[in-house]
Amino acid sequence: MKTSEHKMVTQQENPYSEERIEKLTEKVAKQLDEKRMKHTLSVAHTASCMAMRFGEDPYKAYVAGLLHDCAKGLKNKKKLELAGEYGIEINEAEKDNPDLLHAKLGSILAKEEYGIEDEDIISAIRYHTTGKPDMTPFEMIIYIADFIEIHRKPLMIHDKARKAAFTDLEEAMRVILEGTLAYLGKKGAMVDPITQETYRYYNEKQA
Ligand SMILES: [Fe+2]
Ligand SMILES: [Fe+2]
Question: What is the pTM of this model?
Answer without folding.
Answer: 0.93
